[in-house]
Amino acid sequence: MIFFLSQPITQLLHLKVASAVPSRIRDSIGLLKQWVEQWKLLAYRGMEALVELFGRAPHPQEPHDVSAKVRGTHDTFLARCGLEASQA
Q1: Exposed (0-12), middle (13-18) or buried (19+): which is 19, by Cβ within 10 Å?
Q2: Which is nearest to 30 in space by CA: 80, 85, 73, 75?
Q3: pLDDT on residue 23
Q4: Residue among 23, 30, 22 at smallest CA distance from 83
Q5: Predicted TM-score (pTM) of this structure
Q6: How far is Cα 50 from Cα 57, in angstroms, rounded to an integer?
Q7: In whole angstroms, how far apart are CA 3 and each of 6, 11, 64, 79, 87?
Q8: Which of 4, 21, 58, 74 makes a 20 to 30 Å CA pair with 86?
Q9: Residue 2 above 70 pLDDT?
Q10: Which pLDDT does position 25 carry in this prediction?
């Protein structure tokens, strides 16, 4: 037997699921921010060691420029996720 849900019921189910997701994210934001802060400095130190290789690539790029672009992209990503972090 196949059941078809009416349009109003599917809309209601969608709204209930959609409203549950942000509340779970809000509950986890503090933990996620803490994780970002804990690992950001170490990740950036690792990145700084790698960006030096860009200066020796067949089409070299200034390592400082690569680092700045990565940090900027990362900051934009964190902001879009609501996880703005302090400067590292």
Answers
A1: exposed
A2: 85
A3: 64
A4: 30
A5: 0.62
A6: 12
A7: 10, 16, 60, 42, 54
A8: 21
A9: no
A10: 67
CB atoms within 10 A of CB 7: 8
User: In sequence order, which residues have a C-beta less than 8 Å from that of residue 33 and are 6 or more positions away?
Assistant: 83, 85
d(CA 10, CA 14) in angstroms, rounded, equals: 6
User: How many CB atoms lie under 10 A from the CB of residue 52?
Assistant: 11
Residues 9-26 pLDDT 10s:
555 444 554 455 566 666
Cβ pair 64, 52 in contact under 8 A: no
> What band does 4 get if pLDDT is binned at 50, 70 and 90?
very low
